[in-house]
Design brief:
By secondary structure, this protein is of the alpha+beta class. Helices cover about 20% and strands about 40% of the residues. It contains nine helices and 53 strands. Strands 38, 39, 40, 41 and 42 form a five-stranded antiparallel sheet that branches. Strands 1, 2, 3 and 4 form a four-stranded antiparallel sheet that branches. Strands 5-6-7-8 form a four-stranded antiparallel sheet, with helices on both faces. β27 and β28 form a beta hairpin. α7 runs parallel beside α9 and α8 packs antiparallel against α9. The longest helix has 24 residues. It is globular and about 80 Å long. About 45% of the residues are buried.
């Protein structure tokens, strides 16, 4: 027997009472939508969540009824997010029954209930009964709430009319057994094995976050450097690898702080959690007190490389899984941990234990140098010079350069400088994968990047856009002041349009199949590929800069009562990771620096930089000897700051100055952007200056080349587009290193 119940304490919600006293329809509707109370799903009298679920009742019931309707219509599985509690209910169809799995996505992921079998029709009847009772109670308590509950009532009608479609049990699928890469000889490694017999991975259709399609059974096996099996974890590899990647994050933070030890637990289905202790001072790892033949850093690398291997396996099975925000979050977090490990293994690991005082060693940048020895001189040769008008876009992809201005859009060969094609320009141009968007005052057109041919041209859906982005399914997003419109990539027809309530400035950030919309009205909205609202988060104040992505989170700089704040929200679920007050007025967005975030800005007009830990705690704030608002550029273990006159200062992980370079004598106006490649820092001003990032030594220059937009590739090919729209392309001719 299954029963779904809702709590009754929502009637005493003070926000609802206040809205009723004011008789404000908008306030009342908002209060009704945000009513939070307990939600219980009982099978044979046992609450699957053990009383842990508190969620906004109206949207949660709407989503639950919609998920059950899709199951009745023949869908293989559906997922319901239960409020902000980090719990997700996964519903899976098997013949005439449904299997209920409740997942807690906390600091350690675990299953509260697994594959609890109920009749599909009984599940639908229980959901209808719960929704009907809640609607009656709501209208009785708030007479004007009938309009606010119309979506729920419509979902009730759809589910009541639905007739279950007969679905056969899943047949074993060919190629269901998936195996990851074997660990390399002489290295610790984590082998991944999956058994997708029910076709969960292949059933995902794309365009939305979907936890259920990733809950494929399988096994993780940790191997030592000698090939011996150190640990085997059966169950759901996605949940295990999610926990291991998060544990690697905490361990790396501990290593950077100079902690002696790091401890965390490994959840094991059907068994007690295992305790993993990393002795960072002695470089030893212990599992349940047993010494492992794998030091801490190689062990952490095995965990995160196993996560990347899992993501590769899943996307090879079903390429649409690249649109699944749960998977992209894991992949981004694991890739960032690999980058941090590269930095630590390149010499950025604090010394273990107490050590006698000594001079600090020179900072080393974890980048492949141009050649052996110390870089002394660079020389360049010009390949192209082109006038494109006021700058709009500059990108280096593969073997080509795409540059755009009001006067023209051109694609050049990166090695020869030859112009492959050129077409008229536009005020807004964005180079997207597979598409170039050009928007004028009244029309928007899409170009084929390879040939410059016109794919389609349409009237603007609204006012001239201020930005553009692209979803994983190829849909082009036009960002306007207060709105975002999705266009079909093949025809340009409008798919959907989202109006940000009360917003005059809007930014959009696309992460796979999810678009995050931030606005100066003080809200972050997450929409799926169909334009449906996934979650909404109120920021501490108006969002003042474009949001950015970092380790699966959305970062937003906001105005706040105390000045400014940095908000970090989980991109998949909308859960707040942290809200950090800033002691400065930000001059730009946050910059990812290893496992930390650096925010440049000013305090009472003087330059400053604040560095935050991964959880938002302040690490340190420094006031460098510069002028004006600084620009920040990470350079391995160093953070390079440049002031308004062009002077440079490099700080280490503790905030100490490692080197400084004064402003150029001929500096005029505001300096241009910074870029880093192959251990070489490129600074744009009155000409381009090339510095060795490790020491700050000047190793090259391109006089007479200024840059409003700057791009540098791994071969030190330099492309600059100045304020007048003059494009210059230079290629590295020779370099001299002293061994």
């Amino acid at each position: 027997m299954i029963r779904i119940r809702t709590g009754a304490s929502w009637r005493d919600d003070p926000r609802l009472a206040a809205a009723l006293r004011r008789a404000a329809p908008a306030a009342g509707a908002s209060a009704v939508r945000e009513l939070v109370d307990a939600l219980a799903i009982e099978v044979d009298g046992v609450d699957l969540a053990g009383g842990r679920v508190e969620a906004p009742l109206l949207p949660s019931l709407e989503e639950l009824l919609g998920a059950i309707s899709s199951l009745l219509a023949g869908a293989g599985h559906a997922t319901v997010i239960l409020g902000d509690s980090g719990l997700e209910l996964v519903l899976r169809r098997r013949g005439g029954t449904a299997l209920l799995t409740l997942v807690a996505l906390g600091r350690t992921s675990h299953l509260l209930a697994r594959d609890v079998e109920v009749e599909v029709e009984a599940l639908a009847a229980a959901a209808l009964d719960a929704a009907a009772r809640f609607c009656r109670d709501l209208v009785a308590a708030v007479p004007g709430a009938r309009r606010d509950a119309r979506n729920l009532r419509a979902a009730v009608r759809r589910l009541a009319r639905a007739r279950p479609v007969e679905v056969a049990g899943p047949a074993p699928m060919a190629g269901a057994e998936l195996g990851g890469r074997r660990p390399e000889p002489g290295r610790c490694g984590c082998a991944v094995a999956l058994s997708d017999r029910d076709g969960l991975l292949a059933a995902y259709g794309g365009g939305r976050p979907d936890l259920g399609s990733l809950l494929v059974p399988g096994r993780l096996v940790l191997h030592g450097a000698d090939g011996a099996e150190l640990l085997a974890v059966p169950g759901h590899p996605f949940l295990s690898l999610r926990d291991l990647t998060a544990a690697a994050d905490r361990a790396l933070c501990a290593a950077r702080r100079g902690d002696v030890q790091a401890r965390f637990e490994l959840a094991r289905p059907g068994a007690r959690p295992s305790s993993l202790r990393l002795d960072l001072a002695r470089r030893e790892s212990f599992l349940d007190g047993r010494l492992l033949a794998c030091p801490p850093l190689p062990l952490l690398r095995a965990f995160v490389e196993g996560a990347l291997d899992f993501c590769r396996l899943v996307q090879a099975r079903n390429p649409r899984q690249a649109e699944n925000a749960h998977l992209t979050e894991l992949e981004a977090a694991a890739a960032e941990r690999v980058a941090e490990l590269d930095e630590l293994e390149a010499g950025d690991l604090p010394p273990a234990g107490p050590a006698p005082a000594r001079a600090a060693p020179a900072a080393r940048v974890a980048r492949a140098p141009l050649g052996p020895g110390s870089l002394r001189r660079l020389s360049f040769r010009r390949l192209a010079r082109l006038d494109l008008g006021a700058p709009a876009e500059l990108s280096l992809r593969g073997g080509t350069v795409l540059a755009a201005g009001r006067g023209g859009i051109a694609r050049l060969d990166r090695r020869s400088g030859a112009v492959r094609w050129r077409v008229p320009g536009a005020p807004l141009v964005r180079s997207l994968p597979g598409l170039v968007i050009a928007a004028g005052p009244d029309r928007v057109r899409a170009l084929r990047p390879s040939t410059g041919e016109l794919c389609w041209e349409r009237d603007l859906p609204g006012v001239p856009p201020t930005g553009a982005a692209q979803l994983a399914d190829g849909a082009a997003l036009l960002v306007e002041p207060g709105a975002v419109t999705a266009l079909d990539p093949a025809t340009g027809e409008r798919r959907w349009r989202f109006q940000a309530p009360g917003a005059s400035r809007t930014w959009a950030l696309a992460l796979g199949g999810v678009v995050l919309v931030g606005s100066d009205s003080g809200f972050l909205h997450a929409l799926d590929a169909a334009g449906r609202l996934l979650w909404r988060v109120r920021a501490p104040g108006p969002i003042s800069r474009p949001p950015s992505a970092w380790a699966g989170a959305c970062l937003a700089v906001c105005e706040a009562a105390s000045g400014s704040a940095l908000l970090a929200v989980d991109a998949a679920t909308g859960l707040r990771r942290f809200e950090a007050p800033l002691e400065l007025a930000p001059a730009g967005g946050p910059v990812a620096w290893g496992g930390r975030l650096a925010v440049p800005g000013t305090v009472a007009g003087d330059p400053a930089v604040t560095v935050l830990e991964r959880d938002g705690r302040p690490a340190w704030t420094e006031a460098p000897q510069l002028t004006g608002a600084p620009v920040a550029q990470p350079a391995g273990p160093l953070l390079v700051l440049r002031g308004a006159t062009g002077a440079l200062v490099a700080l280490d992980r503790s905030g100490r100055e490692r080197w400084a370079r004064s402003a150029p004598v001929a500096a005029h106006g505001r300096p241009g952007p910074l870029a880093l490649s192959r251990g070489t820092l490129v600074a744009a001003g009155d000409g381009l200056a090339f510095h060795a990032a490790e020491s700050g030594e000047l190793v090259g220059a391109l006089p007479g080349v200024s840059a409003s937009l700057l791009a540098v590739d791994r071969e030190l090919t330099v492309v600059a587009l100045d304020l007048d729209g003059l494009l210059t392309l230079h290629r590295l001719g020779t370099h001299l290193s002293v061994v």
